[in-house]
């Protein structure tokens, strides 16, 4: 898409240079300008679309990072609880063995 705009722009510049040198305007000059404008608009839409996709993927990655952090935090809390539970059970078993 952008390559086509470059080609159309090159043609337009050449035609414009010819028109300036000769003082005449080629009959296809207006069509080239319209085509260039159309191609530029399409390229701009494509770039906006790509930008939106990148932005949404970035948001998705950020969301996934937050979810992983939350999950890790929950996992660490569970580990602490399991460790406390194990300590309590060990204390109970020790006190039972002493009696």
UniProtKB/TrEMBL annotation:
This chain's protein is named: Mediator of RNA polymerase II transcription subunit 9
Quote the Pfam families the UniProt record gives: Med9 (PF07544)
Task: Report which gene this protein is encoded by.
Answer: LOC109722504
Q: Which GO terms describe its cellular component?
A: mediator complex
Q: Looking at the record's lineage, which domain of life comes first? A: Eukaryota
Q: How does it assemble?
A: Component of the Mediator complex.
Q: What does this protein do?
A: Component of the Mediator complex, a coactivator involved in the regulated transcription of nearly all RNA polymerase II-dependent genes. Mediator functions as a bridge to convey information from gene-specific regulatory proteins to the basal RNA polymerase II transcription machinery. Mediator is recruited to promoters by direct interactions with regulatory proteins and serves as a scaffold for the assembly of a functional preinitiation complex with RNA polymerase II and the general transcription factors.
Q: Which organism is it from?
A: Ananas comosus
User: Which segment of the chain is annotated as a signal peptide?
Assistant: 1-19
Q: Where in the cell is it found?
A: Nucleus
Q: Which residues form a coiled coil?
A: none
Give the molecular function GO annotations: transcription coregulator activity
Alphabetized UniProt keyword annotations? Activator, Nucleus, Signal, Transcription, Transcription regulation
InterPro entries for the chain:
Med9, Med9_plant
Q: What is the lineage of its organism?
A: Eukaryota, Viridiplantae, Streptophyta, Embryophyta, Tracheophyta
Residues crossing the lipid bilayer are none
Provide the family line: Belongs to the Mediator complex subunit 9 family.
- Biological process annotations from GO: regulation of transcription by RNA polymerase II
């Amino acid at each position: 898409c952008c390559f086509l705009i470059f080609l159309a722009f090159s043609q337009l510049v050449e035609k414009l240079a010819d028109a300036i040198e000769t003082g005449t305007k080629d009959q296809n000059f207006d069509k080239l300008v319209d085509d260039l404008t159309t191609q530029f608009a399409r390229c701009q839409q494509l770039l906006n679309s790509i930008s939106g996709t990148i932005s949404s993927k970035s948001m998705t990655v950020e969301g996934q990072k937050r979810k992983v952090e939350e999950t890790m935090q929950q996992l660490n809390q569970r580990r602490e609880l399991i460790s406390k539970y194990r300590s309590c059970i060990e204390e109970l078993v020790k006190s039972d063995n002493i009696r």
